[in-house]
Amino acid sequence: MATTASFLPLATKEASSENSSSFYDYDYLDEVDFMLCRKDTVLSFGKVFLPVFYSLIFVLGLGGNLLLLVVLLRYVPRRRMAEVYLLNLAISNFLFVVTLPFWGISVAWHWVFGSFLCKMVSTLYTINFYSGIFFISCMSLDKYLEIVHTQPHHRLRTRAKSLLLVAVVWAMALAVSIPDMVFVQMHEHPKGVWNCYADFSGHRTTWKLFLRFQQNLLGFLLPLLAMIFFYSRIGCVLVRLRPLGRGRALRIAAALVVAFFVLWFPYNLTLFLHSLLDLQAFGNCKVSQHLDYALQVTESIAFLHCCFTPILYAFSSCRFRQYLKALLATVLRWHLAPGTSQASPSNCSESSRLTGQEEMTSMNDLGARQANNGEGGIVKHHSLGGVDGIQLDFHSMCSRPESQ
User: Fold this and answer.
1) What is the pTM of this model?
2) 182-215, pLDDT tens digit by residue?
3) How confident is the model at residue 169 (pLDDT cuts 50, 70, 90)?
4) Contact 60/45 with Cβ under 8 angstroms?
5) What is the enclosing helix (H) or strand (E) of 254?
6) Read out DSSP for 128-187?
7) Structural domain that includes position 113
8) Where does the G-protein coupled receptors family 1 profile domain lie (predicted)?
9) What is the CATH number of the domain that holds 174?
């Protein structure tokens, strides 16, 4: 998390405020090509831009993820694994945005929350920074197994194994946050001005390079490659079997991959260029200043994932839109009859059961078509209740309660 460094005179040793996830800094002074590089303008820009942007993300992310949590907890009677991953993603993003006001105040002023919150907020930030990305990958994997591998009882899609995967994701995110638990602490400079960042002592550059590489690999490259693989395989199945709604499903799949790339690529590219700058592979003071500006802007853009990604996944499901309408109808009292508002949950449950039955029929048909296609037979459209083909909903298709 970007925080301001203390304003230091030219003759003093530099002190930096580190990012709790990637551990970069916006130093007031920086040694580039053996010259002192002043960054007054970078700090002045950050003191205005970052608190404003963090506040915007906090408001949007808090509202969107709270709404998602209410809908999932109130109107989803049986937790399918797609909803379990989405629920954990919403929890992760909610906890992530809760840390942003602390960093916004720290950037605009200084760290005023004490030593315990310094370490706790930094750790919470990193855990949910990574877990949010990991759960997006889990949702891609689950959708891949749903559509590409259509066996009724796929060995990788049992409920126990899926819940184990959820536990593994949180454990991995916790493990990645260990440097925050160990190294992050409060520092006073000058007197009365406190900052919260990691102190790596004599191994500062080595740790910064390692943690940036970790962010590039675990936080971007591997999840992106996984999404490209899973959704490309899904796309191949949809193109081959030609179910009804294929175009919408392909557009949603493409949108999910593009959204992840657009939000995260600029930030990770800037981190990579910062690492090259630390290794003195290129650059001068002006380049260092430009990269600091770019890092503040691209980081803030990347943080928008906690506002838009859960909504993008949720609204790809017709079932979720039905639940949302039921919630809005209850809250706004749109029902004309007195007893209608109390009947809303049961109506929604009934709609869920009907949707599940339709999905089971569609899934059996899709599996039969894939099996016939695999045996070299001619794939034909089947008539389901007078409707030719398969009614396809990308997020909620292929759901089978028995496979959970």
Assistant:
1) 0.77
2) 999 999 888 888 999 998 888 888 999 999 999 9
3) very high
4) no
5) helix 246-278
6) HHHHHHHHHHHHHHHHHHHHT---TT-TT--HHHHHHHHHHHHHHHHHHTHHHHHHEEEE
7) 39-204+216-264+306-323
8) 64-313
9) 1.20.1070.10
